[in-house]
Amino acid sequence: MSDFAGMQDLLQDFLVEAEDLLSGVDNKLVELERNPENRALLNEIFRGFHTIKGGAGFLGAQELVTLCHLTENLFDKLRNGELHLSPALMDVILEATAAVREMFGYLERSIQPPPADPQLLERLRLAIAGKLEQGAEAAATAATQPQTNAQQPNAAEPDWDALHAAVTGAGAASAKAPSGSGGSTAPPSNETKGKPDEEGGRAGVPVAAARRPMAPLARKETVQRETAIRVDTARLDQVLNLAGEIGLTKNRLTALRSDILSGKTDPDTLHALDVAVNQLDLLVSDLQNAVMKTRMQPIGRLFQKYPRIARDLARQLGKEVELVVQGEETEIDKTMIEDLSDPLIHLIRNAVDHGIEMPDERIAVGKPPQGTVTLAAKQEGDHIVIIVADDGRGMDPEKIRAKAVEKGLITPEEANSLDERQSLNLIFLPGFSMADRVSDVSGRGVGTDVVRTNITKLNGTIDVRSEVGRGTTFIINLPLTLAILPVLLVRLGEQPFAVPLSMVREILPIHLDEVREVGGRATLFVRGEVLPILPLANLLNWRLERTPAYGVLMQMAEFSFILGIDTFAGREDAVIKSLEDFRPKGVAGVTILSNGQIVLILDMKELFETGTGTKGVSKASLDAKKAVAPA
After folding, report:
1. 516 - beta bridge partners?
2. pTM value?
3. DSSP H or E segment with residue 243
4. pLDDT under 50 in the chain at which residues?
5. pLDDT for 138-189, tens place per residue?
6. Which side of the chain, N or C, has fewer Cβ within a 10 Å radius?
């Protein structure tokens, strides 16, 4: 049985509240480091630990109580002026918050957490007694002694995997393997995230933590994706009121139906029917919007953990970095929050590692020693825009093209045809990396590609802008919700298809006399861009029955092209139905139109990568009258 049998509801409530409290504490600690004499911050952090301790005591999580109690006592001395914040003191405090979050991981699996690292508890007691600096000096002296059985650590390569796990609670790769062991520090697959390792700890936590004894059952349970959601009661009241109104309208329609069936078809009755149907249409739309809003959560719940991540990584790299967060109140679909976590962590990590220069480099070029990384969110129409920007060294498009050619990702001819924007987007290609060496932070060429893939899975897009010496900006566009997708309806003959509207730039007529052949491919010249024409029939491996009459200018992260279609049928907000048991390649899901017709929603990225038309077609083969169409 679970260690918390019969207390699951209380446990889940505690974890939701405690996670928010601890994330808030992390942010306040980063702010406190910049303003150590701020009594208001000290009081807030003290209350955070006190509240977590109280909930843990009610659940009988004694080891968590012990850890929080010691940390609470430390902050009591700080706020009373008996101690003063120092870098060594901040380090032990941040280590304590990481240990608290690690204990939350056990509680998520309904397991009583084991004791915290004895060395951490001892450092907390030394700190409370005002003797931490003496202990730190002793440890430093011991660290200078020759190491006979261990490799000297490399301060220039921070252990990102352990840092990620400690701060976010998400499992990452296990601790570094000793030199010569052949171990890898590459990030784990999704299947291994958050699972206990063979030592009895969670993957991604430091070795000292991973080797602590684990409670029984720990090896049998895994961390589950959070399914609970907190909803403002005002929104639930709105849903309830709308449901009541729909019930009344339904009763009115039932009565009118009875009148009509009994032969009462006078103008007044038909007018009343028309009014009732229109009212029902409005109410159902309002109910749909209200239900969608219950899924919306402030993105600040996601953003609040990133200042701590940026601070810790900058400290390990010897840089001075401030993470500025904006737009925390912007709301986003709950299902997106967890899927956005890792992509944003990677972009922030890259900004701190690659974007922001060392303090002396910044001073030499007239910049302040402290770099700034901005994480911002805002709603624009039916989309959410998330921006990750830094004021660092920026990226050179020419060097990116050269590196992509060097790695064999594109040909020299393709490189010469790319403009600045397309060149910057080469960083999203699998295997691309500007790093000359592999470290724990970067250099494997798997990062930005995964970021783009994860954003695409959310029906979003990501773009990059950069200026050498001024910084880099990543712009993510996401739909408000995954349940409804704005689409453009296109047709091949009588068959309709839906393509995501977020990828559509414009619709153009295709006139054969305006088509030019470049490199053996049919192209159109559109406002300075030479764009290939890819008939949808070719992408679907269908017979090209007629010359495409229209082209949909599609924009993917690193490539633009014109999708050749017969005609289009307008825009629609599609309610997506997934194909779980059988999903053909290039199909993201299905939707049902207002006339009852079932329409496939196309996955354009997958079609482009796997379709027969990705190489483009010649001008001659584009003309269906002259072409010998494939079977």
Report:
1. 523
2. 0.63
3. helix 233-261
4. 1, 137-164, 166-220, 222-224, 437-440, 442-446, 612-613, 627-631
5. 444 444 444 433 333 333 444 444 444 544 444 333 333 333 333 333 333 3
6. C
Q: In b/e form, how buried is each residue of 223-262, taking b as 16+ CB within 10 angstroms?
A: beeeeeeeeeeeeeebbeebeebbeebeebbeebeeeeee
Residue 188's pLDDT is what?
37
The fold adopted by the segment(s) 8-138+158-210 is Four Helix Bundle (Hemerythrin (Met), subunit A) (1.20.120)
Fold of 484-622: OB fold (Dihydrolipoamide Acetyltransferase, E2P) (2.40.50)
In the sheet with 383-390, reading across from the earlier edge strand, the strands are 321-326, 371-380, 383-390, 471-479, 461-467
pLDDT tens digit string along 69-123?
A: 999 999 888 888 888 888 888 889 989 999 999 999 888 888 899 999 999 999 9
Residue 476 β-bridge partners: 386, 462
> Residue 501 gets which letter from DSSP?
G
Query: What DSSP assignment string belongs to 385-426?
Result: EEEEEE-S----HHHHHHHHHHTTSS-HHHHHT--HHHHHGG
Pairing mode, if any, of strands 296-298 and 471-479? unpaired
Cα angle for residues 340, 345, 346 (degrees, 5° grid): 105
Residues 13 and 10: their CA atoms lie apart, in Å, by 5
Tell me which fold the domain 298-479 belongs to: Heat Shock Protein 90 (3.30.565)
State the Cα–Cα distance between residues 489 and 577, nearest whole angstrom: 16
| Spatial distance between the Cα atoms of 623 and 631, rounded to a whole number of angstroms | 16
* Alpha carbons 541 and 585: distance in angstroms, whole number: 12
Domain ranges of the chain: 8-138+158-210, 233-294, 298-479, 484-622
pLDDT for residue 407: 86
